[in-house]
Amino acid sequence: MQKKREHWNSKIGFILAASGSAIGLGNIWKFPYIAGENGGAAFIIIYLVCIAIIGLPVLIGEVLLGRTTQRNPVGAFKKLSNSKFWAVIGSLGVIAGFIILSFYGVVAGWSFGYIFEAINGSFYDFNQIESASNHFTQLTSNVTWIVGFLALFIGITMFIVYAGVQKGIERASKIMMPLLLVILIALMIKGLSLQGAEKGLAFLLEPNWGNVTGETILLALGHAFFTLSLGMGAMMTYGSYMTEKDSIPASALQIVFLDTIIALIAGIAIFTAVFATGQDPSGGPGLIFHTLPIVFTKMTGGYIFSILFFLLLSIAALTSAISLLEVVIAYFVDEKDWKRHKAVITFGIITFLVGVPSALSFNVMSDMTIFGLNFFDLADYLASNILLPVGGLFISIFIAWVWGFDKVLIELKKGSEKLFDNSPWVINYWKVFIKYFAPVLIFLVLLSKLGLLEIILNFF
Ligand code: PHE
Predict the structure, then answer these.
(1) Would you say residue 44 lies in a domain?
(2) I want to staple 319 with a disulfide (CB 3.0 to 4.6 A). Which of 20, 34, 346, 382 is the partner?
(3) Which atom of ligand 1 lies at the shortest distance from residue 317's CA?
(4) How many other CB atoms are found less than 10 A from the CB of residue 409?
(5) How far is the CA of 23 from the centre of ligand 1 (A)?
(6) Is the pLDDT of residue 202 over 80?
């Protein structure tokens, strides 16, 4: 007997949940520091182009696969193709869900921990960047602190997913996403009001093309993928809770718009403050945990703003983590007939256990490396640089070349009849990008990530 599938209660419910998945540590932690390290505006322009020509088309495709099949990533491919190969591609997504959640949970745990640091006023003991980074090192070397906050973070994620699609994920997104937007706008206004903010804005708005290399382009492309939660079936799974009433291209455009605007606002909030207080914009991954605490001590109202900032970062991480866990849960519920509650408890605990070695990479296991990477970096590398691009590559190949494009268009038209009639060029644009641009460009990123592109280019 077919079980009745849960669906989003409203169109806005889907958009908020999917934007919640997209908007995460990628937007507020990763994007500002990669932009900071790669020359600011020039990087941002390239990133925006990547979002438009790859991110948006692949997002439409992933959601479409989910909605058409009403299945998790493995079930979706199985339903449309008899070949085992595609089921394996789907299962890579489920595996990527575990792996990303394990290192993502560690950074999200720091963010939770930093809410308490901010409340305790710990940042006021810092006078220079060294004391802030020492404090960070001290906290992350404490096994109880780091594993404890990882457990708390995974626990809250499980709690939301346990409650189901409408009562858990949709409800949580409807509360957390507006809150996130309000906090972020408050932080941006604060940043812009600081004396010297214009230097931060100039950094974000005036492109310095001299810094751009091939590597920058590939970095921007990879990040476009990560930030839109593409390549591992998170958007497919959320799409599988959609009905045929709603337009996929219109929803995808709104999600991409929200994700991009939030990364930009986060960039403005952070760099205006960093420049106004005379800090270094190229702080790398430590920008948020080393540089920002100093920035807060140097501004009026810094105490409140520091709490708000880490609250914002934690909310963003949480709405992404629920989508990661949901991929795993949907697989066991659809394919293995598990009850949601049992799946959440079992795989929540397993994800926590997989996360522990990532957390311990900052202390007792820091010397243990595989291929020269500690566990945390290995999980990040494997997921972001291999599994997501491979997943994205095959998802676009499947949609464009395997499924049958006439069938694809019939499905896409459902809920978008007006768009098909009034602006057929939009559909043609999508067709070209999903068939040619996306697979070729993703393939190049993949080669470069594996270090093969350079070898091939040198050959010529
Ligand atoms: N998009 C999320 C972020 O930007 C990360 C993520 C990747 C979430 C893949 C789900 C799937 O932080």
Answers:
(1) yes
(2) 20
(3) 12
(4) 13
(5) 7
(6) yes
CA of 227 to the centre of ligand 1 (A): 5
Sequence letter at residue 67: R
Query: Is any ligand 1 atom within 6 A of the Cβ of residue 232?
Result: yes
Instruction: Give me ligand 1 centre to Cα 43, in Å.
Output: 20
CATH number at residue 227: 1.20.1740
Encoding tokens for residue 453?
């592109």
Question: Which atom of ligand 1 is closest in space to residue 228's alpha carbon?
Answer: 1
Return the residue whose CA atom lies nearest to atom 11 of ligand 1: 229
- Does the CB atom of residue 237 touch ligand 1 within 6 A? no
256 within ligand 1 shell (Cβ under 6 A): no
Q: Quick check: CB of 234 below 6 Å from ligand 1?
A: yes
Q: Tell me if 309 CB under 6 Å of ligand 1.
A: no
Q: Is residue 3 one of the residues assigned to a domain?
A: no
- Torsion angles phi and psi, residue 373, rounded to 5: -115, 145
- pLDDT-based confidence at 1, cuts 50/70/90? very low
pTM of the shown model: 0.93
CA of 54 to the centre of ligand 1 (A): 16
Give the Cβ contact number of residue 21 at 10 Å: 26
Tokens describing residue 390 = 């491979």
* 127 CB-side CA count, 13 A: 0
Condensed to tens digits (0 to 9), the pLDDT of residues 374-413 reads 888 888 888 877 888 889 999 999 999 999 899 999 999 9
CB neighbour list of residue 121: distance below 8 Å, 6 or more residues apart: 303
Residue 296 located in a structural domain? yes
| Higher per-residue confidence, 33 vs 314 | 314
C-beta of 100 in contact with ligand 1 (< 6 A): yes
Considering its fold, how many domains does the chain have in total?
A: 1
Residue 173 located in a structural domain:
yes
Distance CA 432, CA 46 (A): 20
The range of the structural domain enclosing residue 184 comes to 11-459
